[in-house]
């Protein structure tokens, strides 16, 4: 998952550093959105349920509800950014981008503290490769 995070970070950086709204920046954001959506789907449908099962947490127990809420907020803010970019409002796009980046940093910190240290105990190397 850390490799996937690095890939997503690079896509986001390419978009964030583009400093203009044009066809290329729209394409970068679209690719980032698609890849982030895939990453979140993997965590929500595979990792998080396995995490809860492994540690014996119910659906609304433990750290997973916080991470799920982060995912909702991340996608909501990214969708808002897409809409603002369609209006060519560079100032608002920058503000939303900075807030999005802060949210991603906070979320990654949570994942690294709560989930990632445990995932390797119940997800075998072969499963990671399949994923």
Keywords, separated by commas or semicolons:
mainly alpha, single chain, 131 residues
Main sheet summary: none
The end-to-end span amounts to 10 Å
Count of DSSP helices? 6
Low-confidence stretches: none
Task: State which percent range the strand residues make up.
Answer: under 5%
* Element order: H for helix, E for strand: HHHHHH
What structural class should be given to the helix and strand makeup? mainly alpha
Task: Indicate the overall shape.
Answer: elongated
Record field, number of beta strands: 0
Q: Name the quaternary structure.
A: single chain
- The proportion of residues forming helix, as a percent range, comes to over 70%
Question: How would you describe this protein?
Answer:
By secondary structure, this protein is mainly alpha-helical. It is elongated, with a radius of gyration of 16 Å. It is 83% helix and 0% strand. The protein has 6 helices and no strands.
């Amino acid at each position: 998952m850390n490799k996937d995070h690095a890939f997503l970070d690079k896509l986001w950086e390419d978009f964030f550093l583009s400093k203009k709204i044009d066809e290329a920046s729209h394409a970068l954001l679209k690719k980032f959105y698609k890849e982030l959506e895939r990453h979140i789907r993997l965590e929500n449908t595979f990792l998080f349920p396995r995490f809860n099962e492994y540690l014996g947490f119910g659906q609304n127990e433990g750290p997973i509800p916080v991470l799920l809420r982060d995912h909702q907020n991340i996608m909501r803010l990214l969708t808002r950014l897409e809409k603002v970019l369609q209006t060519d409002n560079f100032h608002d796009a920058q503000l939303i981008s900075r807030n999005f980046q802060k949210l991603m940093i906070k979320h990654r910190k949570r994942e690294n503290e709560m989930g990632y240290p445990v995932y390797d105990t119940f997800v075998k190397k072969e499963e990671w490769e399949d994923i």
